[in-house]
Amino acid sequence: MGEVIRRIDKPLQVNPFRLSQPMGAALAFLGIDGCMPLMHGGMGCTSFTKVFLTRHFCEPIAIQTTAVTDVTAVLDGGDGSIVEAVKNITAKVTPSLIGLHSTGLTETKGDDLRGIASQIDYPMVYVHSPDYEGGLESGWGKTTCALIEQLVAPCQQGRRNKVVLLPHVSLTPIEVEKLKEFIAGFGFEVQALPDLSTSLDGHLGEKQSALSSGGITVEAIRELADAGLILSVGDSMRLSAEALLKKNATLCHRHFPHLQGLEATDQLAACLLEFSHRELPPAGVIRWRKRLQDTLLDCHFALGQTRVLLVGEPDFLSGAAQLLREAGSQIRLVLSSVDSPQLDRLTADTVLVGDLEEAEKRQQDFDLVVGNFHTEALARRFGKGLVLRGFPNWEVVGNQLRNDQLYEGGSAFLCEVANAAERSRHGH
Questions:
Q1: Beta strands 385-388 and 35-40: pairing type?
Q2: Radius of gyration of the chain (CA)
């Protein structure tokens, strides 16, 4: 365990990669079937999020705005803007839910989202997500928590064969799907919240929809408390699990900081064996475990001499660092977008909460970068190897189909990183 520096003593971020809470909130609402995210703020905030997610997923993204200006924020507090926005939305489409989330402008004014939502006669969930604090991960987590608190019906007993999966924001749609399939393989019925695996998974619909297509239904969310087991993945999802536990005292909860690599996947398999009363995992799971073991051996020669820089959201960093350490990589520097308890458990020489300027200062310490699109210029400028992961990733097609989780995804990720390290070493 190396040094963890939580705060960089400088007045501004020079080369930032942190993403805002409202963006994370909007993304969570897109994991609900037929939901319309409604960003309570200026038009620019919503337009940026819409373009950002459209470029990342290569899919049309449905988001609406209350179009608040500094003048309307002061004169009417934004209440009228929300009411008018809901009227405009429902005049054109019929969403199953409206996801109202705030921005820095309206939070600074202090708009009462709960009071406004209670006066609107339409299914709505509200969440406070100011962009002057937290980031993408916390916006996703807060929204999940709000969905549970405001929609899930209390229950007195649970179904032992039903599992609720609470995935963190850095899990791609295909990764959520693979986790659901892995759990279902042990005989469980699985519901994920939020569920991007059927909404932003890149499937070709019959026509372009004005609402999110796919994801968990509002009806399924209301019935989540009748499950027997909650599986939360990532520390950002702990509060959501606690909120669901309050809905049913008989629920069992198992938390996983991440599900990357041999050790973490073994722990998940052991948990599912315990609750399913099975003696052995499915044959395919056993086979992929052996493949990952072989991959760890094969990649060790390339990764054992590779010094790595990791950049991204805390829950992603936790899993990627663990998997790379299992293969023998030297995690020299970790750059996190925001602070998190996850950072205290990372095995790395240095962990920073800061910006990419810190990586430039320490560019002699690493050979390969694993991070989002913002790290590409840094890697090219200093001749480092590069593996693109996280948000945003604007120049690569198929972000929603990348899987780094469990035994199968871990094998693919290690091979990709090892090949990138070898190409970099030989000047390719």
A1: unpaired
A2: 22
- Separation CA 209–CA 62 (nearest Å): 8
Q: Which fold has domain 3-8+285-425?
A: Rossmann fold (3.40.50)
| Architecture of the domain defined by 159-282 | 3-Layer(aba) Sandwich (3.40)
- Can you spell out the DSSP letters for 205-267? -SS--SS--SSB-HHHHHTGGGEEEEEEESGGGHHHHHHHHTT-TT-EEEEES--BHHHHHHH
Peptide bond between residue 194 and the one before it cis (omega within 30 degrees of 0): yes
**Half-sphere exposure for 398 (CA within 13 Å, toward CB):** 3
On the 0-12 / 13-18 / 19+ scale of CB atoms within 10 A, 205 is exposed
Question: Which CATH number is correct for 21-134, 1.20.970.10, 3.20.70.20, 3.40.50.1980, 3.40.1080.10?
Answer: 3.40.50.1980
Say which residue the tokens 């939901």 belong to: 35
What's the pTM value of the predicted model, to 2 decimals?
0.94
| Residue ranges per structural domain of the chain | 3-8+285-425, 21-134, 159-282
The phi and psi torsions of 33 (rounded to 5 degrees) equal -65, 125
Q: What is the pLDDT along the chain (428 residues), one digit of tens a residue?
A: 556 666 555 677 788 888 999 999 999 999 999 999 999 988 888 999 999 999 999 888 989 998 887 766 666 666 788 888 999 999 999 999 999 999 988 888 888 899 988 889 999 999 999 999 999 999 999 999 999 999 999 998 889 999 999 999 999 999 999 999 999 999 999 999 999 999 998 877 665 667 778 899 999 999 999 999 999 999 999 999 999 999 998 999 999 999 999 999 999 999 999 999 999 999 999 999 999 999 999 999 999 989 999 999 999 999 999 999 999 999 999 999 898 888 988 888 999 988 999 899 999 999 999 999 999 999 999 999 999 999 999 888 998 999 999 999 999 999 999 999 999 887 76
- Among residues 265, 258, 224, which one has the least CA distance to residue 241? 224
Residue 362's CB: how many other CB atoms inside 10 A? 16
- Which residues, at least 6 apart from 264, have a Cβ–Cβ distance to it below 8 Å? 256, 257, 258, 319, 322
User: Do 3-8+285-425 and 159-282 come out as alike in CATH topology?
Assistant: yes
